[in-house]
Amino acid sequence: MSDFKTMGQQFGRRSWAEPWKIKMVEPIHMITREAREKAAAEAGYNTFLLRSEDVYIDLLTDSGTSAMSDRQWAGMMMGDEAYAGSRNFYNLENAIQTYYGYKHIIPTHQGRGAEHLISQAIIKKGDYIPGNMYFTTTRLHQELAGGTFVDVIIDEAHDPTDPHLFKGNVDIDKVKDLVKKVGAENIPYVSLAGTVNMAGGQPVSMQNARELKAYCDSQGIAVYLDATRMYENAFFIQEREEGYADKSIAEILLEFCSYTDGAWMSAKKDNLVNIGGWLAVNDAKVAEQARTMVVVYEGLHTYGGMAGRDMEALAIGIAEGVQDDHVASRVRQVRYLGKLLLDWNIPIVQPVGGHAIFVDAKRFYPHIPQDQFPSQTLAAQLYLDSGVRTMERGVVSAGRNPETGEHRYPALELTRFTIPRRVYTQAHMDVVAESLKAVYDQRESTKGLKMVYEPEYLRFFQARFALLD
Ligand code: PLI
What we know:
Elements (H helix, E strand, L loop, with lengths): L2 H9 L21 H10 L27 H7 L10 H14 L3 E5 L2 H12 L5 E4 L4 H9 L3 E4 L20 H11 L6 E5 L12 H14 L2 E5 L3 H11 L8 H10 L3 E5 L10 E5 L2 H14 L10 H14 L2 H20 L12 E5 H4 L9 H13 L4 E3 L1 H4 L15 E5 L7 H16 L7 E5 L10 E4 L2
Helix pairs in contact: 2-15, 3-12, 4-12, 5-6, 5-11, 9-10, 13-17, 15-17
Bound molecules: ligand PLI.
């Protein structure tokens, strides 16, 4: 076991620290309260519509917001910008095959490009796609391909207070029930995500993945993985699951992926780049279908929408992001913020997940009904207080049921405080926690929002709101 793991246990009071030091900085500052009020009103109280210059600490997302290393930047200078057959593609292909273990690699501009390809390649109209909780873009691509998403995550995942250590697990009985109801021939694959973003960054256990694969094999159903935050999932397996404490994140990742038939990836998260994605599959026929489509929607199959330099940074980021000390410090920083909030009894999803703190807006604002958007309200109030930007993950993100046109009312009404990788320090976390405490102290006098503009798809990105008072 490496030193960084044992130090804390041996000396009790010894802290962990990030496995890097800062070489270049980007200045940030907080604009005045008056300016924040103006900016929030102009953005329709939707944090996606703020200008980033008006934001102080940006916890909107961990997507594409990582700091790249000196090695990645050096890699950017090695871009082979040939239209076809760039050497950077072969480096990328090699990195994915080495660390994830899949055979056929198709680059895409980002994760949703890969979701589009896999959904169009293997979903036929009328199919059902069971998954461990929906993700916004993933479900939409499944629906646009003619499929219906069915939630098969364990019930504990829908309870923000349940202490289950693997709240991302699939309830395999729910998959069996679906097979009985609609027939295995109408289920092309199970959509398995590790960790589960909308559940609070919660992991899937190795045992669950193994059992799911065994059952799906018996029914001729594939298992495809959303690998976006699988490094963090592997960390939780190492920490919590028997038999994995002495295995590296890289070893755990390879075993986990071996229980799946392929994966799509938003490389903008775990893989430590600002843009990029990929699809990886073992089935040669599925690969051929995806390659046929990638040239229509993304670019040639050896760049898929990325520049050569971006593929090089990605190949390097794949190897850097999977290092044990990196993943451990990343998750521990998230936990540090979580502990500050718990010490003040601020209601958050527990156990704390891998990439973000999720504040439980239903308990934070019990007097604001879900159709007055409590988690959107919280994101707006936090921005007004300190210029800290967070994101709604509740009724706005859930969208409307395409059949009834009604709001979907998810059990989880959350505001996400997402921590970019290698970007902020513990002092930034202190500032965020203190601002949230100030908003919490004002909670009883806070009113909700009304939606005044709603786009047709993925409304959380562009919807506009007005203050109810
Ligand atoms: O943003 P993309 O297109 O690179 O990836 C889409 C995507 C797929 N799966 C999962 C689990 C995601 O979290 C994801 C994107 N997430 C974003 C943008 C986020 O802020 O969480």
